[in-house]
Amino acid sequence: MFSFQNISANNGWAMALAGALIVMTGLTVLSFIISRLHWLVGLMEKKEKGSAITEPVGIPEKFPESLAAQAIFYEPLIKQLPETFALDALYTLTRDNDFPHPHITIRAFRTAGFLVSKGEGRFAWNATKQGA
């Protein structure tokens, strides 16, 4: 029943080759799509206008431990952004200005109330919190 003659008589070799080619082609296409996913996502995201960096901000050798003191160093960055902004714009500014641990600090600012959510992924800087 399962012999090489039966496989040859019923085009089994051609079907096996075609199946292998289909699987390999599918995997190749899938790996190409995954390798270009960052580019595809970039096309779909909205680009913000007016978030250009004006000038680099100076930072000290050692950042202070209190959040209120750190907020003083973030103030010039916030002034470069519009009144409401997406966090990725602030992340980009902190990364470009070599601020240490921007993800942790911005998360702490959100928790402490320095960054206030305005909905739809937009945030505003709470200037009154800095004086507290």
List the helices and strands and how they pair.
Layout: H1 4-9, H2 12-35, H3 37-44, H4 67-79, E1 85-86, H5 87-96, H6 102-112, E2 115-119, E3 122-125, H7 127-130
Antiparallel strand pairs: 1-3, 2-3
In words, what does this structure look like?
The chain is mainly alpha-helical and 132 residues long. It has 2 domains: 41 residues; 64 residues. The protein contains 7 helices and 3 strands, in the order ααααβααββα. Strands 1-3-2 form a 3-stranded antiparallel beta sheet. Strand 2 and strand 3 form a beta hairpin. It is rod-shaped and about 85 Å long. The relative contact order is 0.10. The model has no long low-confidence stretch (mean pLDDT 81).
Q: Main sheet?
A: 3 strands, antiparallel
Rg calc:
27 Å
Query: What's the pLDDT, averaged over the residues?
Result: 81
Following the backbone from N to C, one meets helices and strands in this order, namely HHHHEHHEEH
> What's the count of strands?
3
Query: How many distinct helices?
Result: 7
Write out the strand line-up for the largest beta sheet, numbering strands in chain order. Answer: 1-3-2
Portion in strands: 5-15%
Helical content stands at 55-70%
CA-to-CA gap between the ends? 86 Å
Structural class: mainly alpha
Low-confidence stretches: none
Q: Number of folding domains?
A: 2
Q: Indicate the overall shape.
A: rod-shaped
Describe the structure concisely.
By secondary structure, this protein is mainly alpha-helical. It has helices spanning 4-9, 12-35, 37-44, 67-79, 87-96, 102-112, 127-130; strands at residues 85-86, 115-119, 122-125. It has a three-stranded antiparallel sheet.
